[in-house]
Every structure is written in structure tokens, then in C-alpha cells.
């Protein structure tokens, strides 16, 4: 199937705990086009894993809307979400072993994922050998998962994640335990799946290099989209409620309480901070439409 779009509108997630509520996501606005590859990056505890868990339907948001393709996740029953996960949405959890049966062969791991998906209607399944080719494990179908090197095991987990031909693949920290070579192989496998199948791919990662390689890196900061990097350029992002997060180093120059004026007199938009054009204070302001091609 072709890639699925992902849309988040004002998504909020609150964990209820005895010690007090934790606001993990405080209003995420995001659109991912079909067939895009995106990394969620950001500091520990910023909300990346929570966001990917909501996209996977493993949890439901406290407020806001999560859309996957034509589905409004909030309107689906638990049974419909379970069917979606494992067919149209592939999920690869952090730690390759959690996605695999270690004593079974690669072929059997893929077969099991496909058998689960085949129980639902309308799923056309790929040849397991073709799936292994996509992740660089062609010809190794008889190998037991437990015998594979860590990088190959992570790619085996990807193979299981794409076994049913999902339109969206969600992957949590695929390179965290790997050396540079293993990381390159995993990123190459993701690129190949994306190029050959048009699958939309979302990866949570601490590795900035993985973010750069995927082309679009969305920085989650304090439970919101803090910034975006596209093809090596960094952007601040205007959220659905009109707020914009500035990087911490820029906030040093424009602390909370700074007064901005929006001047439209020159036909464009100029920001004046405390009466001075922002550019003169060392920050150039360039805007582009969110959906403009990169
Ligand atoms: N089950 C939970 N109960 C209560 N609070 C939680 C729970 N899971 C996560 N949190 C809190 O929610 C916030 C966001 O956590 P989350 O795991 O989504 O961040 P993260 O960016 O993925 O972090 P990391 O990179 O360390 O995995 C953090 O403050 C975290 O402590």
C-alpha cells in the first residue's frame, strides 16, 4: 500500500499518577505527508515516546486529534485500532528483541506477523524473501534471530514491522545500541523501504545524525513541536494556537516578556523586538509555508 499521512491537531497527553499529573504533550500540531520520512528528536523526557505511542494507538490522547490516513484515531474502537496496528500501521518497539521470537528463524518471524495480519480482511502479503531483501538480509531467512549481530537483529525487527505491508512504519530508537556501521545499515534499510514502497516512516531517535539522514527532524521540546530541521536548515514552527518556541540560546537574546511588533508596511513581514528590527539583533527571520516543497 502507499504511504499514509499523519496529522496531529492540538494533541495533549497527561499521565495521571499518584504523585501528580504529568503533562507529557502540551499541544502538538504536526502534519506528515504520505511517503515522508521524519525523525522525532529532542531531550530526554520531552515527549517523543508518548507521541509515537499515540500514533501507534497504544494510548489515546487526553485531548486533540490524531489522524492516520483517513482514520480519526479517536473515533476507532479498541478492536479497530488493534487491527490497524500490524496491518496498515507497523510498529517497531525500542529494543529489537521485543519485536522478535529469538529461537525462531527470520522466515518464521515474518510468517507469524503475516499470519496475524492475514486474519484481517484485504491484506495482500509480500514474499518473505522480498521483505528480507529490502532490509539487507536477503538469503538469511533460515538464520535464527538470536544468532544475528545487533545491527542485523534490528533490521530483522524492521522486516517484521513491514511484513504486512503497512503504509506507516513507526520505529522507536532503532539505532541506540548500535555502532556507526550498524546505524548506517539500519538507516539504509529505512531509506530502501521508503523508496521501494513509499511507506511513511517516523523514527524516534536521540541520534542527530539519523535525524539529518531522514531529511526532516522534528524537535519535541517540553511536549510541543519546538523546531524543525529540513535538509540541514533549522526552522522555528508556529503552532496551531499561534505560539512559537525559540531555541534556548535565542531566548537568551529575547527573554520572555520581550515585546514584538509585527510590521507589514514593506509588503512582507518584519518583526520588531522592542522597536528594533529582529535581524539587527542577530536573528534573520525567514518564513515559508509549512507545505512548501523542501
Ligand atoms: N507512564 C508514565 N507515567 C507518568 N509519567 C510518564 C509516563 N511515561 C512518561 N512519563 C513522563 O512524561 C514525560 C514525557 O516522557 P516520554 O517518555 O514521552 O519522553 P521522551 O522524549 O520519549 O524521553 P526519552 O528520550 O528519555 O525516552 C516525561 O516527563 C516522563 O517522565
Automatic annotation (TrEMBL):
<keyword id="KW-0067">ATP-binding</keyword>
<dbReference type="GO" id="GO:0005524">
    <property type="term" value="F:ATP binding"/>
</dbReference>
<dbReference type="InterPro" id="IPR003593">
    <property type="entry name" value="AAA+_ATPase"/>
</dbReference>
<dbReference type="Pfam" id="PF00005">
    <property type="entry name" value="ABC_tran"/>
</dbReference>
<dbReference type="InterPro" id="IPR027417">
    <property type="entry name" value="P-loop_NTPase"/>
</dbReference>
<dbReference type="InterPro" id="IPR015854">
    <property type="entry name" value="ABC_transpr_LolD-like"/>
</dbReference>
<keyword id="KW-0547">Nucleotide-binding</keyword>
<protein>
    <submittedName>
        <fullName>ABC transporter ATP-binding protein</fullName>
    </submittedName>
</protein>
<dbReference type="InterPro" id="IPR003439">
    <property type="entry name" value="ABC_transporter-like_ATP-bd"/>
</dbReference>
<feature type="domain" description="ABC transporter">
    <location>
        <begin position="9"/>
        <end position="247"/>
    </location>
</feature>
Amino acid at each position: 500500500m502507499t504511504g499514509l499521512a499523519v496529522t496531529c491537531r492540538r494533541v495533549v497527553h497527561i499521565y495521571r499518577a499518584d504523585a501528580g499529573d504529568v503533562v507529557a504533550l502540551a499541544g502538538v500540531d504536526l502534519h506528515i505527508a504520505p511517503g515522508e520520512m521524519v525523525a522525532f528528536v529532542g531531550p530526554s523526557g520531552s515527549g517523543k515516546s508518548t507521541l509515537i505511542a499515540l500514533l501507534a494507538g497504544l494510548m489515546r490522547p487526553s485531548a486533540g486529534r490524531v489522524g492516520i490516513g483517513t482514520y480519526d484515531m479517536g473515533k476507532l474502537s479498541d478492536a479497530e485500532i488493534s487491527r490497524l496496528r500490524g496491518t496498515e500501521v507497523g510498529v517497531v518497539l525500542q529494543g529489537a528483541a521485543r519485536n522478535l521470537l529469538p529461537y525462531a528463524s527470520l522466515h518464521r518471524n515474518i510468517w507469524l506477523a503475516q499470519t496475524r495480519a492475514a486474519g484481517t480482511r484485504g491484506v495482500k502479503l509480500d514474499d518473505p524473501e522480498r521483505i528480507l531483501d529490502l532490509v539487507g538480509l536477503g538469503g538469511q531467512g533460515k538464520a535464527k534471530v538470536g544468532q544475528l549481530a545487533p545491527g542485523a537483529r534490528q533490521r530483522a525487527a524492521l522486516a517484521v514491522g513491514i511484513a504486512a505491508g503497512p503504509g506507516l512504519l513507526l520505529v522507536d530508537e532503532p539505532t541506540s545500541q548500535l555502532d556507526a556501521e550498524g546505524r548506517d545499515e539500519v538507516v539504509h534499510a529505512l531509506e530502501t523501504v521508503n523508496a521501494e514502497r513509499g511507506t511513511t516512516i517516523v523514527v524516534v531517535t536521540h541520534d542527530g545524525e539519523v535525524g539529518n539522514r531522514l531529511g526532516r527532524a522534528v524537535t519535541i521540546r517540553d511536549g510541543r513541536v519546538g523546531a524543525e530541521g529540513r535538509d540541514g536548515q533549522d526552522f522555528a514552527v508556529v503552532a496551531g494556537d499561534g505560539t512559537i518556541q525559540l531555541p534556548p540560546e535565542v531566548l537568551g537574546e529575547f527573554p520572555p516578556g520581550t515585546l514584538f511588533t509585527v510590521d507589514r508596511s514593506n509588503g512582507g513581514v518584519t518583526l520588531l523586538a522592542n522597536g528594533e528590527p529582529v535581524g539587527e539583533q542577530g536573528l534573520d527571520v525567514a518564513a515559508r509555508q509549512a507545505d512548501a516543497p523542501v
